[in-house]
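During the second half of the funding period, the structural biology subgroup turned its attention to how the target accommodates small molecules. The most pressing case was AHG, which had performed well in the primary screen but for which no bound structure existed. We therefore specified the complex as follows and requested a full 3D prediction, including the ligand pose.
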Amino acid sequence: MNRIITLDEFIIKRQKDFPFASGELTGLLRDIGVAAKIINREVNRAGLVNILGIEGHENESGDTVQKMDIFSNDKMIECLSNSGECCGIASEENEDIIPIENVSGKKAKYVVAMDPLDGSSNIDVNVSVGTIFGIYRRLSDTEVPVNKEDFLQKGSELVAAGYVLYGTSTILVYTTGKGVNGFTLDPSIGEFCLSHRDIQIPKKGNYYSVNQGYYSKFDLEMRRYIDHCADSNYRLRYIGSMVSDIHRILFQGGIFLYPNTRKYPQGKLRLLYECNPMSFIVEQAGGTAINCQMERIMDTEAKEIHQRSSIAIGSPEMLDEMKQFVAKYQAVV
Ligand code: AHG
Ligand code: MN
Ligand code: MN
């Protein structure tokens, strides 16, 4: 039988891959692992909580029942603030950045951009949700509080990124730029255990994932590519949580699209909290991630923290095929 390798053990071993690492990143990833376990517990109880009380109201025991995305946001902030490795957070749920004070004299070097609960509309109907995070080295001096510029870095500057998928089982997938590994939560021991080593995305696949309901709002070239997917009998899957949709594609191959629409001319998904971290993971697994202007997501200039982007991400050969459609039909317009 294979020996169990826990997330904590794995991260500590991997610290050796970084010659000048002093353990801060290791500590930070562990903090995120702890937050993920707490969120997981609450996600699993969500149905039960709904029986006891309505969001924002008191339950029978007199506790205030929070919306799950606010709860997840609070837990991530709390865990990231505890060990003093993180000096600031940008969250999809907060308008402004959240500076974190130094803990016990430590001078934290890292900032975290996160979507604490992705696909939150799924929670009420017992369907998978996720958490996404991206970690950057701070740019400003450690003597002063963080500022927005610390977060306005390109995805190519990410030091680490990952997601947690709260699905039929709970899995944490992360990269520090040396491949991608996945850890499944064993509820009996409360540990994330290495279950998917060195994940490689299939070069091509037969899944496509897009909100087909917006078809008429997409540009011509995207519509032609989506027609091609349907004509080729690719299987359409759309959960409405990009973590879940991309997780399938990471393992089984395919393409996930959230193009610009009339309502969202820049695309809907957020560059810092969703597109960059997921792109880093998919690229590290051998995939491709671009926007609908055919530019690499991770090379996008970040001008504001809640910036949106269009995205096409997944198996490299499918992305190449999509680019050919775009080149052909853009020429027609
Ligand atoms: P969030 O729950 O964090 O707001 O994210 C939902 C996102 C993404 O995960 C998903 O792919 C997309 O929004 C779904 O949007 P549509 O309902 O417009 O398809
Ligand atoms: Mn999201
Ligand atoms: Mn969210």
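Two results from this model are relevant to the next phase. DSSP finds seven helices and 15 strands in the chain. The two ends are 59 Å apart (CA to CA).
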